[in-house]
């Protein structure tokens, strides 16, 4: 009886503990749900931003920076002009302006237009120097080249481009130098079949024409043979690839599982108990896996692909459209001397923000909705070709 009493008390204690745990979890999740509901709402237009209370506030104009956010919707943000030597060239809600670049006389730069609160200073190379680009935003001013003795100038040096020279007539370039033609070569055609030779031996000209015609005919036949072989191979390969496979339109989950592994059927019913278990097909054994396999996107691989596809002048515009603010952009440029690595960091900030919003943390794998958001922004920027390349790479139908 005493043992039964202990068992009954244990059950009651377990029930109370379960109820207490449920109440504790409810208390933890209710504030979170309230916060999510309070921050939900229609997106602000591009000339506005969302403050800490979730209200839409007006951005500062170009040439200004944000001093104080608006307290609530319908009120104005407090903005102030950028100080001397700093600028903002678009609408923003950044607390700091960007530093204007400096034209360095020691590097042979001269000023084209001064720094203003709404635009950066513009520099160029001084006279007799040209811009030797290191990357899209970095360059050195180098002295213009002069044409050598056996060269002629075809394009003059400008601040943007070096002098262009070519060899004089009857000269051709060998290891960077212009040399006089002395033998019959591709560059020195005037040494081939001179009039004196053809005039003294007119029969040879007819023979040469026949040989040339035969050679041309042989080349044409060879090219046609290669072309026909290529077309047949392409047709045969396409025919083999069009054989039935695991497709989303005509397959069930069971058939999809069968595409992922195979088994050997016993030849005799007496061996049914010793059947060979299914063996998983690796990526090396079957590179054309069915479309039903989940897609995983490595963040670093995607970012480097985007950097290869998007022109350098449009990368900042892209990261801004993805929600990376000017302060984060400037911080990436300060942390990385390389333009490419700075742009990589900007896209990394966007990916990590999206991962945190999706509850995934700062993982190495990109969330699927972020890729769709990236494709949408690329098309808005008229970069449809880049979006198509990404869709092909990640097999997005």
Can you offer a commentary on this structure?
This protein is of the alpha+beta class. Among the domains are: 43-126, Tumor Necrosis Factor Receptor, subunit A, domain 2; 127-190, Tumor Necrosis Factor Receptor, subunit A, domain 2 (Ribbon), CATH 2.10.50; 297-393, Death Domain, Fas. Helix content is 41%, strand content 16%. The chain has a two-stranded antiparallel ribbon with strand order 1-2. Strands 3-4 form a two-stranded antiparallel ribbon. A hairpin with an 8-residue loop joins strand 7 (109-113) and strand 8 (122-125). The two termini are 70 Å apart. The relative contact order is 0.05.
Order of helices and strands: HEEEEEEEEEEEEEEHHHEEEHHHHEHH
Q: Beta-strand percentage? A: 15-25%
Number of DSSP strand runs:
18
Which blocks of ≥5 consecutive residues have pLDDT under 50? 1-6, 32-39, 195-201, 243-294
Q: Strand arrangement, largest sheet?
A: 1-2
Summarize the biggest pleated sheet.
2 strands, antiparallel
Overall form: flat
Please give the count of helices.
10
The CATH fourth-level homologous superfamily of the domain at 297-393: Death Domain, Fas
Fold-level CATH name of the domain at 297-393: Death Domain, Fas
Provide the structure class: alpha+beta
CATH-scheme architecture of the domain at 297-393: Orthogonal Bundle
